[in-house]
Amino acid sequence: xxxxxxxxxxxxxxxxxxxxxxxxxxxxxxxxxxxxxxxxxxxxxxxxxxxxxxxxxxxxxxxxxxxxxxxxxxxxxxxxxxxxxxxxxxxxxxxxxxxxxxxxxxxxxxxxxxxxxxxxxxxxxxxxxxxxxxxxxxxxxxxxxxxxxxxxxxxxxxxxxxxxxxxxxxxxxxxxxxxxxxxxxxxxxxxxxxxxxxxxxxxxxxxxxxxxxxxxxxxxxxxxxxxxxxxxxxxxxxxxxxxxxxxxxxxxxxxxxxxxxxxxxxxxxxxxxxxxxxxxxxxxxxxxxxxxxxxxxxxxxxxxxxxxxxxxxxxxxxxxxxxxxxxxxxxxxxxxxxxxxxxxxxxxxxxxxxxxxxxxxxxxxxxx
Length: 368
Description:
Elements: E1 3-7, H1 11-22, E2 26-31, H2 34-37, E3 46-49, H3 55-61, E4 68-71, H4 77-89, E5 95-98, H5 102-110, E6 115-117, H6 119-130, H7 133-151, E7 197-200, E8 213-220, E9 224-231, H8 233-242, E10 245-254, E11 262-263, E12 280-281, E13 283-290, E14 293-303, E15 307-311, E16 317-320, E17 324-329, E18 340-349, E19 352-357, E20 363-366
Parallel strand pairs: 1-2, 1-4, 2-3, 4-5, 5-6
Antiparallel strand pairs: 7-8, 8-9, 9-17, 10-13, 10-18, 11-12, 13-14, 14-15, 16-17, 18-19, 18-20
């Protein structure tokens, strides 16, 4: 979870705030026009009416306390330039400003902006990418499958209306707060898991045989990271018949520490390499399930020169019955109080990647 300040609540500012809030982040909004923020006040973490070209207004906000400050002034470039410069002078960690022209970008980048956003240009690039060759193939493939269902006289599944990989791009929800669940591998009525964050893996003819789990839930308390994997029923039955080995990997890193990071070791079995696969991490945890039992939990730490070394995993608790429950001490993966953990999951077999979860961004949890 990150803290975000959005200055200027026009159309772009509204959409930005809504998306950050939907992804579980703390968002403060501010505009000099009360009408511009009134519809978002019930949802934003906090809100304020004020003219941010005035230094005293920005000082009352405490811009240095936010992970990122977005300056979304659309019609008055002079105000955008002044605000960008002021928030940087007051200690903002990262300043991202909205622009409409290249000349504006040059001025802002020279006067405090760490990054600029071209909303129209970015949307155009997104749509162009959406209809690039890979996505055209995805569309054609789904249309072909729809025709097969129609030919067989069967109802066309709803998932074929959605690109096959986009459904696992982000969690359906983030944890609602701290909780300490029972680690017993039983899919019972443990209400503590109701506070967990969750990612659902879509059904489909391409993913069904390979996907290890239907859903992943995650959460934390002051000492531990908790994971719960809902194992795919097809996978359970196949494993019972063929003595199949299933592997899942958890890659973690401390957002506050950049030293001794190493790349993901999973082999890519396709030529299409996702940007998230190029990220580097401090820890890799491998969990293997054989004959419907956990037979391996291994923790590996990054060392200099992009290398990995096996370390102790004796403090990690892993239990599998109806579901796979795992408890990982923050101390074992180098997350101190106040630090932010970034992580992702990889479904793999024999070290060959099937898919990343999520596949576009890292998940985050802050240890309190």
